[in-house]
């Protein structure tokens, strides 16, 4: 299995975001199975014609999201992301709820703010 990523220099998202989203999407839909070994940062950068720092930034974001994991000299692998993503989302939601309460928002005001942010993130109108 070969990792197929296509970078469109004419599209809106930055190249690192294109790398990040394509790997995340493939991990999520199972076309990159858990345990799949990803190319090295330098190897993928060379294949895509990108700077190594661009691919490294994408890998760091994927690792922070729990999509991939680095195992030292053994390489970088697709992680079992479902549990990690759900856990991270729950932590972020709890932090948001606590911050909204400290700022004096009502539960309804906080809910509206969260809903508006989700609509914006997913590209939907109010």
TrEMBL record:
Residues 13-81 form the HTH gntR-type domain. InterPro entries: Tscrpt_reg_HTH_GntR, WH-like_DNA-bd_sf, WH_DNA-bd_sf. CDD domains: WHTH_GntR. Keywords: DNA-binding, Transcription, Transcription regulation. The keyword DNA-binding applies. It comes from the Bacteria. PROSITE patterns: HTH_GNTR. The keyword Transcription applies. This is GntR family transcriptional regulator. It comes from Streptomyces tremellae.
């Amino acid at each position: 299995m070969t990792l197929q990523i296509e970078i469109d220099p004419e599209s809106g998202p930055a190249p690192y975001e294109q790398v990040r989203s394509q790997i995340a999407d493939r991990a999520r839909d199972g076309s990159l199975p858990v345990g799949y070994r990803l190319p090295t940062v330098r190897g993928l950068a060379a294949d895509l014609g990108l700077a190594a720092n661009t691919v490294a930034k994408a890998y760091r974001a994927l690792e922070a999201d729990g999509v991939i994991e680095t195992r030292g000299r053994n390489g970088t692998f697709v992680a079992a992301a479902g549990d990690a993503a759900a856990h991270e989302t729950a932590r972020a939601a709890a932090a948001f709820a606590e911050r909204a309460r400290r700022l004096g928002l009502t539960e309804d005001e906080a809910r509206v703010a969260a809903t508006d942010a989700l609509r914006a993130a997913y590209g939907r109108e109010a």
